[in-house]
DNA sequence: ATGGCTTGCACCGCAAGA
């Protein structure tokens, strides 16, 4: 088999890997991403469908949790080499929201950042604290001479251009100024927001809620992000969102979002 | 300005998502 000239790195909030497994497998077969970060497994470690994922041609590591959260990393034809599970900085944090591994020569931090609603309140405080911890850990990755990426559901609407109607989301945790500031502080370490880089002012969404046919009408948010360190950003070839997955029956409310990188 | 929908869990309603 001829070696592809590019490598496709994707992130997908599946919103329950139990119910969404057929959608996930169809997407994997159709788009053949090389590296995949999954969020919101909503399944215990025991319930993760490892056999089906393996049969689809992917090695996997996962960090599950009953009912909520849960993250995984898949490698097409390879086993991810795990370097970390759980974000450092709070030993009492029991939520499964971070897993990191070397996959196809890239160190990938896969994250499911807390939603933070309702705000203000303890959940919003947890979100801000989590972003501070992420920023500290990200600093150890951004300056590596090795390719590194931070990808996942960030639950951050970076700018008003990343939402169909900023006014309708004004009170939401995803759009608050301190959340945006924390996101841009993270980028300022030297990360490239790949979709923002390529799309510029053109609107692109990765999430559409279940109300008022927002998916069909393309009224969404851009909250799933792929951040590349400088070494990796030099190889950025293209980006995209597989919106067709969101329009399938019984779909997740997120669509797979990806970058293609020169090898 | 509000509510609109979907899922998991476990039990027919509630919490959580974004």
Distance between the termini: 16 Å
Q: What structural class do the secondary elements suggest? A: alpha+beta
Widest sheet, order of strands: 3-4-2-1-12-11
Let me know the number of strands.
Answer: 12
Overall average residue pLDDT: 95
Please tally the helical runs, counting DSSP H or I stretches of 4 or more residues. 7
The gross shape turns out to be globular
In terms of DSSP E residues, the strand content is 25-35%
The succession of helices and strands, N to C, reads EHEHEEEEEHEHEHEHEHE
Question: What does the model show?
Answer:
The protein has 263 residues and is of the alpha+beta class. Helix content is 25%, strand content 26%. The protein has seven helices and twelve strands. Helix 1 links the parallel strand 1 and strand 2. Helix 3 packs parallel to helix 4. The protein starts with 5 loop residues before the first strand and ends with a strand. The structure holds one DNA strand of 18 nucleotides.
């Amino acid at each position: 088999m001829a070696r592809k000239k590019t490598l496709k790195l994707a992130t997908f909030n599946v919103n329950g890997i139990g119910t969404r497994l057929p959608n996930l497998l169809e997407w994997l077969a159709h788009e053949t991403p090389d590296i995949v970060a999954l969020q919101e497994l909503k399944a215990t470690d025991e319930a993760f469908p490892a056999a089906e994922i393996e049969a689809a041609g992917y090695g996997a590591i996962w960090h599950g949790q009953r009912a909520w959260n849960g993250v995984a990393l898949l490698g097409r034809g390879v086993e991810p080499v795990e370097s970390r599970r759980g974000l450092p900085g709070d030993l009492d944090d029991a939520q499964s929201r971070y897993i990191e591994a070397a996959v196809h020569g890239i160190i990938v931090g896969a994250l499911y950042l807390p939603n933070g609603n309702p705000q203000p309140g303890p959940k919003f405080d947890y979100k801000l604290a989590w972003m501070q911890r992420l920023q500290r850990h990200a600093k150890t990755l951004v300056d590596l001479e090795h390719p590194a990426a931070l990808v996942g559901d960030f639950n951050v609407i970076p700018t008003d251009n990343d939402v169909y109607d900023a006014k309708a989301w004004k009170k939401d945790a995803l759009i608050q100024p301190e959340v945006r500031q924390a996101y841009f502080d993270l980028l300022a370490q030297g990360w490239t927001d790949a979709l923002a880089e390529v799309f510029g002012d053109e609107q692109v969404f990765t999430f559409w809620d279940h109300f008022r046919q927002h998916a069909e009408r393309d009224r969404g948010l851009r909250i799933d992000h792929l951040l590349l360190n400088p070494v990796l950003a030099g190889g950025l070839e293209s980006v995209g969102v597989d919106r067709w997955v969101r329009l399938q029956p019984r779909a997740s409310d997120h669509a797979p979002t990806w970058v293609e990188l020169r090898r």
